[in-house]
Amino acid sequence: MTTGRIEAVCVSGSDLLPLPDRRPGRSGIDKRPVAGRVAVGRLGLDGDVQVNRRYHGGEGQAVYAYAQEDAAWWVAELDRPLPPGRFGENLRTAGLDLTGAVLGERWRVGTALLQVTDCRIPCANFERFWDVPRLVRRFTAHGASGAYLRVLETGDVGAGDEVTVVDRPGHGVTVGTAFRAYTTQKHRLPELAPALPVLPERTRGRIAARIERRLAATG
């Protein structure tokens, strides 16, 4: 049984990052660690904010996790501190290979039950938040995207909690597979077919259509 732990729990709260020349003009990407237990609802952590609901949040992107091991790579790459929350993550994990996490696997974290649903695709706001040129391209090339999570059972979480992978599907479609299929290796989209049922509801139909078009073009 695979286990890891939560290094920090982070939320954006009401102190949102201003984006004066963009709409909607602010972002919830600037998340900060919070002390104590944090309630986990169906659509995310208590106190967290997703401003642009067209692209962020929702049932299949309720919680975002990023691994300390992947953060350490960026710390060395950029020679700058990247404390918990700097990737816009709610959970900074340790001891888990998030790129190798299987879509649909379930995690027991604190009293909540979470399900891995998808990878994270970096956006322009992420690059602006870090103020690093070509960060989206560099992030994509590196490929450690972190994992989006669905809340199957509400509860609460806190720093120091153990993460137990209680179930892992046998199809083998990983977060890393999805990230590459969406970005640099689009010919791999058909590999995602076994994991379609667990993708976020918002993107499931679109990805299914892209898979069908790819199969039709190659068939």
**Total number of helical segments?**
5
String of helices and strands: EEEEEEEHEEEHHEEEHH
Radius of gyration: 17 Å
Fill in the CATH topology.
M1 Pyruvate Kinase, Domain 3
Question: CATH H level: which superfamily?
Answer: PK beta-barrel domain-like
Choose one word for the global shape: globular
Uncertain residue segments: none
Distance between the termini: 40 Å
Helix content: 10-25%
The total strand number stands at 13
Structural class computed from helices and strand pairing: alpha+beta
Oligomerization status of the protein chains? single chain
Tell me what portion of residues adopts beta-strand conformation. Answer: 25-35%
Number of domains: 1
- Note the main sheet: 7 strands, mixed, barrel
Average pLDDT number: 91
Name the strands of the widest sheet in spatial order. 1-8-7-11-10-9-13
CATH architecture verdict: Beta Barrel
Describe the overall structure:
Pfam families: MOSC (PF03473). It comes from Geodermatophilus telluris. With 219 residues, the chain is α+β, with helices and mostly antiparallel strands. It has one domain: M1 Pyruvate Kinase, Domain 3 (Beta Barrel). Helices cover 24% and strands 26% of the residues. The chain contains five helices and 13 strands. It has helices at residues 68-78, 124-130, 135-142, 175-182, 201-218, and strands spanning 3-11, 17-18, 26-27, 32-33, 38-41, 44-45, 63-67, 91-94, 106-109, 112-119, 147-153, 155-157, 162-167. A seven-stranded mixed barrel has the order 1-8-7-11-10-9-13. A hairpin with a 2-residue loop joins β9 (106-109) and β10 (112-119). The longest helix has 18 residues, at 201-218. The mean pLDDT is 91.
